[in-house]
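For this section, I looked closely at the sequence of one protein beside the tokens encoding its backbone, which the following lines show:
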Amino acid sequence: MAETSRLPFAKLNNGNFFTWKYKMELLLIKKRVWSVINSNKPSVPATGATAGQIEAAEKWQEKDDLARATIGLMVEDNQLSLIRSKLTAKQTWNSLKDYHEKNTLGNKKLIDLGEQQLSENWRVAIILSSLPKSYDTLVTALEVRAENDLTLSLVQSKLIGEYSRRKEADMMDEDDNKSGATVLKTIDGKATCFFCQKAGHFKKNCIKYKAWLDKNPQSTKLIQESVATCSDVANGSKECVEGKGTCEVKIVNDCGDTSIATLTDVLYAPQIAGNIMSVSKLCRKGYTVIFEDNLCKIKQGNTVIAVADVVENLYKLREPEKRINGIKIMDCGIKEQCETCLKSKLTRLPFPKSSENESTSVLDLIHTDVCGPMRTRSPSGKRYMITFIDDYSKYTIIYLLNQKSEVENKLREYIALVTNKFGHKPRIIRSDRGGEYTSKSIKSYLALEGICFQYTAPFTPEQNGTAERKNRTLIEMARCLITEAELTYQFWGEAVSTANYIQNRTLTRSTNATPFELWNGYKPSIDHFQIFGNKCYVHVPQEKRHKLQNTSIQMIFVGYDENSKAYRCYDPVNRKLVISRNVRFVMKKVHSGEIELDHSRENSEGQILKEKNKEALDTNTWDRNEDQSEHEDSMLNYETAESDTSLNSSQENDTTVIQNTTERQSQRTNKGVPPNHFGEWVNVITEPKSLSEALADKNKEEWINVMKDEMASLKRNQTWELCELPKGREAISCKWIYKLKTDEKGNITRYKARLVAQGFCQKYGTDYDEVFAPVAKQTTFRILLSIASKEKMIVRHLDAKTAFLNGKLEQSIYMKQPPGFNADNEENLVCKLKKGIYGLKQAARLWNDEVHKALINIGFERSKNDNCLYTKPEGSGWCYLLVYVDDIIVAAKSNQTVVEIKNQIAEKFDIQDLGNIKYYLGIEVIKDDNGTYYLCQSNYIKRIINEFDMIDAKISNVPMETGYIRTRRDTDELLLTNNRYRKLIGCLLYISISTRPDIATSVSILSQRVSNPSQADWNESKRVLRYLKGTMMKKLALSKTNNEEFLHGYADADYAECRIDRKSNSGYVFFVNGGLVSWSCKKQPVVAQSSTEAELIALNEACNEALWLRKILADMHQSVEEATIIQEDNTSCIRLIERGCSSNRTKHVDTKYFAVSNHIKEKLIQCKQCTTEDMLADLLTKPLGTTRFQKLRDALGLYD
């Protein structure tokens, strides 16, 4: 207190900066050192300094030291961290100023206001607005006065008068209360002591109370000093203080901890009923008192040492057990607990949210537990289940037990299994303290094996929560399977086994992978999954039936066999379990009333299980393989099959399929079992789908490096700048896309990571307007290669790196920071895009605009018929450039021209030279010694065959049966889902339009049924795959020839072949330089009423294509002076066009189909008749027999 009294003013704390700042300025001015705050130390040359310069520097340093010391001594301890590292007074002053005068608009306004002189009217207004509500009458009376009369002195006099009047009224009320109390005391007769409850004296004069104080010094420890003074209290009265001393009391801080608080300078005034603490004295001693949210907090530095609650409009400090008034001024560190409470109120301690020991690899920790007994025995008599859960992978192996005594054998079996698989034993096994785990034989066995066996605390199953939760999950899923299948509870063992089988192959949130994958090291296949309880037909081996006996038996599907690639099916007639791979399924569950089940062992209550302390189920079956467990080789590598799912789809008609068109209807929206096609990607090694998968991949270093390269490219291109998100705008998300670049042989050439914006979040009109961007046509690409073959040109392939990042944005688009690459200490900022980025709706258009401008600037001219084709003069000839997004094809006669074009483009964009073209959009480009180019998609076909599990399928000579289009009906049995069919047709469609016209007819017919495919359509689509498997090495030749007909084609139609809608198919092919460059197969838009009309429609479509080909060749400066010849095999069609005569059978034909006549007259088109035998377009109108098909295929230029 003495030190505080010598200070000129209060030290700086977090609440008095502006006052402290003003006083500190005056103090520094008084000490004549204020100048150093606004100046820097005078510089003194290292050599040749004058005496005056040295003396000025020394004086400045003395003033600076004095100023810095003055400032440092006038701040509280909690402010020292702000100035401890500062070396000059100016740095110290600015540090405090920057911290307390935060650069906000509100603070600036307050500072400006504090420097202004308020007028008298302003001060009057402030005083009146700050008065309490009880003064509203006076305020109203003052405000009605004229503004000139309302002076500050008038307001002050009125307020003083009102205050005096109210104080006198309060004193009169107090006298009345005292007199009333006297009357009451007189009536009562004698006063009563509040301590001993006896009449005749007060507590302050009670002898027993004084004796109690002497005997209990620990409770109050009030050391009184002789004092004779009076103290003012809040109501204005004076109370006599009889002593002063030190008091120790128990208090509670904000965490509920009890400690001893020592109060000094405590005044003893017996007349005051309660203990009162002075807030001002606390503040003078350096403590901070905060009133907020009906709480009063007393802080010492940053630590809350006491808390008071509002009780009857007073703040009362929190106390231990009973409320004892006091305050913790000095924490002595003593923590006390009430033993009575510990005896009477002790509860179970809380469990930690996570384990202290996290597993880092398989077999670090194994959780195990026994569940049961089940009330209903399985058909094999099982009543218990034991689970073994690997803590790292969550992979679970379960065994079914007859009795708990089998636990030791199953434990030994499990340890032997995993030891053989991984080469080492489990490190820790954890279980509860059940008697089945605490036997001496188990303890001695584990001790010899060197395995640590951990037990939970007694009556604490929560410590084995992983096993307990797994049991519950298995039980609940098994219950759902049995309920949905409408089976009896005797199937609980099979249901639990199936539930565990599914869960091991289900993605877990904690690891972002399936337990099976972490356990075995590769992704599982779930393509063979079926609905539990479904009706199925199991093939009967020929050795077990006579010739007239049915080849299959109806059974119930009840799970998957772990020791073989087979299904487990229950025969309800013979009451036995059958394991077979030759199973065909009908998508209809078996109701319990359809097939008689064995109810002899089922409890009449129908309860699935009864547990003692658990809620879990069990997994085991009742045949020879009763203990069904997960092994490392137990993955069912079933081959993809049709909806009836045979286990060997490579053998057609392996098992007779029992058709059943009646589908089960269910109100449930989630059947709990994924569709078959979900498994098609599981076995295929693919690129990571997310950042977490990339970081978990074995090649994560490669992915990390390419992500860093992408980020470096983004920063180098100045794609964005970090800023705060404007109010009212939303930031779109972004994600990483990972790709493996391969060569023409399918070998990985490089890893590629692309940051893409999630453009689906963009809003039209705000984030984008136009989005269209053209791409090069496949026909144009083939024409370019055909001309390059003819002109002996060099064809070079360039790749524009990060192409979309070159487009400049016109709109303001905000994007979240890339995952895994948030800027340090700027996580709340977003990226304001300055350029296009992959994923934006307008990104492709922006890039196309940029590359177009660049090509025009270097002398190229854009084609009017294909906006991605550019031409440029080259000596006496021309060079060509084709753009397909970021793939750029350059064709020129000299290598020097190619290099010049490449360098010119590289000045504008980051270009990678891939050399002479070899691989383009998944198409292999091959050039022979004669300069002829060939196109092939063998690697793509291999991948499709592998994805659809057709590696071992039989080869077909033709892609479609001859009479298929005539035999299919709308009433054919439909597939349950069309997703898998759509995917296959999409893949086949890309092959057919790129390099394989021989499958165009088949794909065109099959694609007409993508919305409702039948089983026959699915089988036929697989036939196309089997045909491609045998011809995957076929190459389309863009041959160099001396044929005088530079451009010619064929057109044909198949009249009303489809029995469903009777529409005809049109087909045409066109050759440039003897190589096939364009073909089409499509259904006609109208129903032709004659073969002549169908041929006329096909010829019109071919004519339109021929006219476009002439234009694109003209853009490429290839002379096509003669009329383009189109071969047609229908005499009536040719006569109709040439003669223009009309008959009753043709007068209804739309006039637009006679436009070809005008083109013939203009000598643009010439129609010639050919024999049906030589009609090459016949291949594109209908399925053909093997001999005819192979002849026309070879004629189109498809060679091995």
Notes: The first strand starts at residue 225 and ends at 232. The chain has 32 helices and 38 strands. The chain has six domains: 16-103, 241-317, 362-524, 530-586, 691-921, 944-1199.
